[in-house]
Design brief:
This protein is mainly alpha-helical. It contains 9 helices and 4 strands.
Length: 201
């Protein structure tokens, strides 16, 4: 298992990253969890097995199966994230990041709705995608500040950029329809901010 991000006196280890990723992503298979966490699938699978032994995650087998948190896992993740944030001493900076995110969030949701209800005119799609690109540029300072406060937040900028690049390349489903779409990653960032700060949805 690889080491984790160093945050203050706290080391965010692979198992903790995997547990928290499952918290933010929700029920998912190893490849999706690995992609979200930025870890090798073999490392993620090893961590999930260890977490399952500890009763923190459980697996549903089968073609549509995957891994999810148990109640004990949700509680443990809350404790570990609280310790991470306290060790880093950056609660105020992460809270400021949440405020910045919430300013942009309604605009992203409106754009996704407009995209899903768009007419077939190419000009309409172009106009919406241009607005998404502008919103993405304005998201940069928020993502940078969060990554400086807690390095694991840096993964979101990477994933948002990857999704938007695919949209620009013509794979428009990566705006709102795919499992790794821009909207999905955005939602997970929102969930991560709330979970990190202990704020109920």
């Amino acid at each position: 298992m690889r080491g984790g991000d160093h945050v203050g006196d706290v080391v965010v280890t692979g198992p903790d990253l995997v547990l928290h990723t499952v918290r933010c992503v929700g029920f998912a298979g190893v490849p999706r969890i690995a992609a979200a966490a930025g870890l090798a699938p073999s490392d993620v699978e090893s961590a999930l097995i260890d977490l399952a032994v500890d009763g923190l995650v459980s697996r549903v087998p089968g073609e549509f199966g995957g891994w999810g948190l148990t109640d004990a896992g949700r509680a443990a993740d809350g404790e570990r994230v609280a310790a991470e944030l306290a060790g880093a001493g950056t609660r105020e900076r992460v809270a400021a990041g949440l405020v910045g995110f919430l300013v942009l969030n309604p605009e992203l949701l409106d754009l996704v709705s407009a995209w899903q209800l768009r007419d077939g005119a190419p000009s309409t799609a172009t106009r919406i995608l241009d607005r998404v690109a502008d919103l993405d540029r304005r998201t940069d300072p928020v993502c940078a500040a969060l990554a400086a406060a807690l390095p694991r937040f840096g993964r979101y900028r990477t994933r948002l950029t990857a999704a938007l690049d695919r949209v620009r390349a013509g794979e428009v489903a990566y705006l709102a329809d795919e499992l790794d779409s821009y909207h999905t990653v955005w939602f997970q960032l929102h969930e991560d901010l709330l979970a990190t700060l202990g704020v109920p949805r």
